[in-house]
Design goal:
Length: 446
């Protein structure tokens, strides 16, 4: 029979085992105090002499962190042991349901960014449309290389098909593609082949030397025709351009639309953000907010934390050791109305009190109050991507200015200010020497 013993008595339950127990024993085995529950030491002589029923004490061990014992119990009755084992069975590790072969194949295949995947599909579909049109004419040689059937591809028939494709492809308006577009089409087809398991280098592989020479000569011919390799890039906003925006009252904080346009301008300029989705995906509230107000020596600063999953930090194996960049925005003590920290702070104060949307840029209210200026809805991507272009048009600033001009202007200003390239790369988030493309010199430096 199990005896009910209180915790204060420091006595463990006793059981009838049919042999004597040394009364002087404390129920511990020397050198093994932390072992499992153990029986007190019994002298062999006593076991031979007496066969009567006696009680034996089981001394409870010290509670281990991983055992599922009650905190207020010094010993576990034997009748509770099956319950503990059942609880441990319930706590067994669970796994996800099995994936289908198609889902597993999708994870194994190489994934591209959305824009890159769009370009790949466009190039592959254009090649297949050209091949179908080419094969309708019985007088011409049949093109057998199909990108939709990679198992049937060979280097010879693919090289022959690509050479003819590059020379015959054209736009919908029957004009020629620029040389840069021809190069991008070929690289997109190469990336498609890599996703299908064919790691063929269409330019460097000696088996595709005809493709390389064909593309090279076509690019030279396009250049002679005035179709240059260089594309129109976003221009840099100088300090004079920014002053013009302030003087024309395009930038400011007097109404909802003006304030949010100014915040987009300041955040993009000081945080060196890319145009488009990086602005749209900014989070400004909750535990995962990318903006934090910090105080250093009694001065309020604004800290921006880069999001993971962007162009230079996808979070995969290649970027597993990269840390998100952090940018500290300093206040403007001379011109408080142009201080980026105070402008962002005012913008946050004008947001709705009850907020469910986690987007940082919200739609301005037409009928706003003194305390609430914005909807609880994110600002549209099209409206957000044209902020700088719209501001420069209102101020009469001539040039090709886009949201990407803010990033180019930020790097250029740091470069002209004598900042080291390593520091510039930390602020801009560049992982390569591509940062040098944004380093524009001014007339004084020339």
């Amino acid at each position: 029979m199990v005896e009910d013993i209180s915790d204060d008595d420091c006595v463990t339950p006793s059981f009838d085992l049919g042999f004597n127990v040394d009364s002087d024993s404390e129920g511990t085995v020397p050198g093994n105090e932390d072992s499992v529950p153990r029986v007190a030491v019994v002298k062999p002589a006593q076991k031979e002499k007496q066969k009567s029923r006696v009680s034996c004490q089981i001394v409870s061990p010290k509670k281990r962190p991983h055992e599922d014992f009650d905190d207020d119990a010094s010993a576990v009755p034997l009748k509770r042991i099956p319950e503990i084992f059942n609880q441990k069975k319930k706590c067994e590790r669970s796994f996800k349901s099995p994936l289908s072969d198609a889902d597993l194949k999708s994870l194994e295949n190489k994934h591209f960014a959305p824009d890159t995947h769009k370009n790949i599909c466009w190039a592959v579909n254009m090649y297949e449309q050209w091949r179908a049109t080419r094969n309708r004419n019985p007088d011409n040689i049949t093109i057998t290389a199909s990108l939709f059937r990679p198992d049937s591809l060979t280097k010879d028939n693919l090289s022959y098909g690509l050479c003819r494709f590059l020379t015959e492809v054209k736009k919908m308006d029957s004009s020629d593609f620029p040389s840069k577009t021809l190069y991008e089409i070929l690289i997109s087809i190469q990336m498609h082949l890599e996703s299908e398991g064919l790691y063929w280098k269409l330019i460097d592989d000696s088996n595709f030397v005809n493709v390389k020479y064909t593309l090279d000569n076509l690019m030279k011919l396009r250049t002679e025709q005035g179709m240059s390799l260089h594309t129109r890039k976003a221009e840099v906003l100088t300090y004079d351009h920014e002053e013009q925006l302030w003087q024309c009252r395009v930038l400011g904080s007097s109404n909802p639309e003006q304030l949010i346009n100014t915040v987009v301008f300041m955040v993009g300029l000081h945080c060196c953000l890319r145009a488009g989705k990086e602005h749209r995906n900014l989070r400004g509230f909750g535990f995962d907010s990318q903006f934090q107000f910090v105080f250093l020596n009694g001065v309020r600063y604004l800290k921006y934390i880069e999001d993971i999953g962007l162009k230079t930090n996808k979070g995969g194996l290649k970027h597993r050791k990269l840390k998100p960049k952090e940018v500290l925005i300093f206040p403007d003590t001379e011109k408080r109305e142009r201080c980026p920290v105070e402008l962002v702070r005012k913008y946050m104060c004008k947001m709705p009190q009850v907020k469910w949307c986690n987007a940082f840029y919200l739609r301005p209210l037409k009928n706003y109050t003194s305390s609430e200026w914005y909807h609880d809805l994110p600002m549209g991507l099209n409206a957000l991507s044209k902020v700088v272009k719209r501001l420069c048009a209102r101020a009469g600033t001539e040039g090709h200015f886009t949201n990407h001009s803010l990033r180019a202007s930020s790097v250029t200003r740091m470069y002209q200010g004598g900042i080291q390239e390593k520091v510039i790369s930390e602020v801009s988030g560049h992982r390569s020497l591509a940062v040098r493309e944004y380093q524009h010199t001014n007339l004084e430096q020339k």
